[in-house]
C-alpha cells in the first residue's frame, strides 16, 4: 500500500471557498488533514482568488451564474489544467459531487489518465433540488446520468447511512459511508460565545428562541405555519442561512404575523453566537444528506426538533437529543387521539425523503395543516419543559462528540490509500465504452438547461 507521504490526490469539486456549505466545510478539513499526513493535493474548483489552501495547489475554473441559485456558477475547465494535471501525476482522483465540472473532468481523465483510480462523493441530491428550483422534468434524467457517472468509480463516499440506503434503492453500488465532523470546542465554549451585539440577533427579551436550519431549505414553511400555532410569547425565531427561498419565507412570516429575524449566512464566531444564544434548534428539512448545521447545533448543546427524514435520523434520536416528526403517520394519526409529542416512534418507522414526503409537505395538501400542528406540538413540548430540554441538551453535546473531523477524514484517506494500489491499464473496449458514456453525459449536461424544462411524452402522460 502506498505511504501517505508519497500519495498524490487530485480533487475536483463543484463548490469551494468562499461559498460555505457542508461540502466546502468537509473539504477544508480534509485538505488540512491530508497536508498534516504528508499527502500532496491538487484541487480544481470554482475561481476563489486563492492559489493554495492548507498546502493544496488550487486551480480556479470560471463560468457563469446559475440562474436558479444565485451564488453558484456553471464552471468550465481551464485549458491550463490539463498540463497541470499531467505534471502532478496523481495516484488517485476524487470527484466531489460530479455534476457539471466533475463530468467535464471525468472526460479528461479517461483520455489523459485512463489507468488512474477514481473515487466520487455524493453529497447533494441534485435531482431533488432540480425539482425544488423549478426544473421537474430534469429529475429522472439526472438520477440516471449520475448513477452511471458514479458507477465508474472504485467507490462512492456518502455522508450518512440513510443516504446510502436511498442510493442503494436507486441502483448505486460500492457506497462507503464516511460521515462528517464538527469541532465541538468551536461551538461549546462556556461563557465565551455570549453575543457582543444581542440586538442584531433579535434578543430583545428572554423568550424561548430557536434558530432555524436555514432559509435555503424546503420544509421551512411547515415550521412557520407551526409557529403560528404556538402561544404568542413563544413565537420568536431566527433564521440562519441564505438562498433562493429566503425572500418567500420572509414574506410568509410577514403574512402570518410571525416575529422572525433573518440573520443571513453566518460563519465562525457569529454562527457560534447564534447557536449559543438559542434554546432549541428547528430543522424541518427533508432534503438533507447529512445535516452539517444540525450537527453544529448539537455541538452547541441544543436539542433539535426535526423530521424523521434522510440525514436528520442519523444524528437525532427521538426522545434522546431531540424530537422527530413522522410525516408518514399523518393519515393514520389523524383519525385517533393517541399521538402525543413524546410518544415513541413505532418500530419500522419509514425514513422520509423528498420522493415520499414532498407531496405531504406541500401547503396545499390535505395533510399539511395537521403536520404543522404536530410540529408545533413538538416545539411547544421543549419550550414548556425545561427539564426535558436540559436533559436533551446534555445528550446533544454527547452525540456531537462522536463526530470528530479526523474520523471522517481518516476514512477518506484509507480509501485513497487502498485505491492507489488498484491502478490498471484498462482494455481498449472498456476505455471506449467509458469515453462514449462520458460523452453522452456531457451532452446531457450541456443541454440540461433546455431538457429539464421540456416534458417528454411520458411526463405528459403522467399528468
UniProtKB/TrEMBL annotation:
Transmembrane parts of this sequence: 435-458
Keyword Membrane set for record: yes
Keywords tagged on the record: Membrane, Transmembrane, Transmembrane helix
Top-rank taxon, per record: Eukaryota
Domain Glycosyltransferase subfamily 4-like N-terminal: 21-185
Ranges for region Disordered: 193-242
Protein name: Glycosyltransferase subfamily 4-like N-terminal domain-containing protein
Record organism: Mycena metata
Amino acid at each position: 500500500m502506498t505511504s501517505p507521504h508519497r500519495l498524490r490526490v487530485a480533487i475536483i469539486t463543484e463548490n469551494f471557498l468562499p461559498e460555505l456549505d457542508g461540502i466546502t466545510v468537509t473539504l477544508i478539513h480534509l485538505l488540512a488533514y491530508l497536508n498534516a499526513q504528508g499527502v500532496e493535493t491538487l484541487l480544481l474548483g470554482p475561481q476563489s482568488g486563492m492559489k493554495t489552501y492548507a498546502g493544496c495547489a488550487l486551480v480556479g475554473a470560471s463560468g457563469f451564474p446559475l440562474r436558479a441559485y444565485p451564488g453558484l456558477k456553471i464552471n468550465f475547465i481551464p485549458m491550463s489544467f490539463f498540463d497541470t494535471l499531467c505534471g502532478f501525476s496523481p495516484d488517485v482522483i476524487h470527484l466531489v459531487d460530479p455534476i457539471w465540472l466533475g463530468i467535464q473532468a471525468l472526460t479528461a481523465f479517461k483520455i489523459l489518465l485512463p489507468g488512474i483510480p477514481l473515487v466520487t462523493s455524493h453529497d447533494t441530491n441534485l435531482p431533488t433540488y432540480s425539482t425544488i428550483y423549478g426544473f421537474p422534468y430534469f429529475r429522472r434524467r439526472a438520477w440516471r446520468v449520475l448513477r452511471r457517472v458514479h458507477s465508474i468509480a472504485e467507490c462512492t463516499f456518502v455522508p450518512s447511512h440513510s443516504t446510502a440506503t436511498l442510493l442503494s434503492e436507486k441502483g448505486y453500488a460500492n457506497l462507503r459511508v464516511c460521515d462528517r465532523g464538527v469541532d465541538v470546542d468551536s461551538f461549546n465554549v462556556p461563557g465565551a460565545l455570549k453575543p457582543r451585539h444581542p440586538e442584531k440577533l433579535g434578543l430583545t427579551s428572554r423568550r424561548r428562541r430557536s434558530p432555524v436550519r436555514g432559509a435555503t431549505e424546503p420544509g421551512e414553511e411547515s415550521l412557520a405555519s407551526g409557529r403560528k400555532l404556538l402561544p404568542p410569547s413563544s413565537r420568536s425565531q431566527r433564521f440562519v442561512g441564505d438562498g433562493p427561498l429566503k425572500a418567500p419565507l420572509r414574506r410568509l412570516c410577514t403574512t402570518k404575523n410571525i416575529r422572525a429575524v433573518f440573520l443571513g449566512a453566518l460563519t465562525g464566531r457569529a454562527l457560534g453566537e447564534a447557536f449559543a444564544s438559542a434554546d432549541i434548534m428547528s430543522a424541518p428539512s427533508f432534503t438533507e444528506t447529512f445535516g452539517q448545521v444540525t450537527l453544529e447545533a448539537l455541538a452547541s448543546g441544543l436539542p433539535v426538533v426535526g423530521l424523521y427524514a434522510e440525514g436528520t435520523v442519523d444524528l437525532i434520536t427521538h426522545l434522546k437529543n431531540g424530537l422527530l416528526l413522522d410525516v408518514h403517520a399523518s393519515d393514520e394519526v389523524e383519525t385517533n387521539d393517541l399521538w402525543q409529542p413524546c410518544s415513541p416512534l413505532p418500530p419500522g418507522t419509514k425514513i422520509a425523503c423528498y420522493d415520499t414526503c414532498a407531496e405531504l409537505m406541500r401547503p396545499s395538501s390535505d395533510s399539511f395543516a395537521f403536520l404543522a400542528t404536530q410540529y408545533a406540538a413538538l416545539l411547544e413540548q421543549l419550550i414548556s419543559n425545561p427539564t426535558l430540554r436540559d436533559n436533551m441538551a446534555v445528550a446533544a453535546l454527547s452525540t456531537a462528540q462522536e463526530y470528530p473531523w479526523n474520523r471522517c477524514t481518516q476514512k477518506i484517506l484509507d480509501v485513497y490509500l487502498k485505491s492507489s494500489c488498484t491502478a490498471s491499464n484498462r482494455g481498449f473496449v472498456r476505455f471506449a465504452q467509458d469515453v462514449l458514456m462520458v460523452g453522452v453525459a456531457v451532452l446531457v449536461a450541456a443541454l440540461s438547461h433546455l431538457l429539464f424544462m421540456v416534458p417528454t411524452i411520458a411526463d405528459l402522460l403522467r399528468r
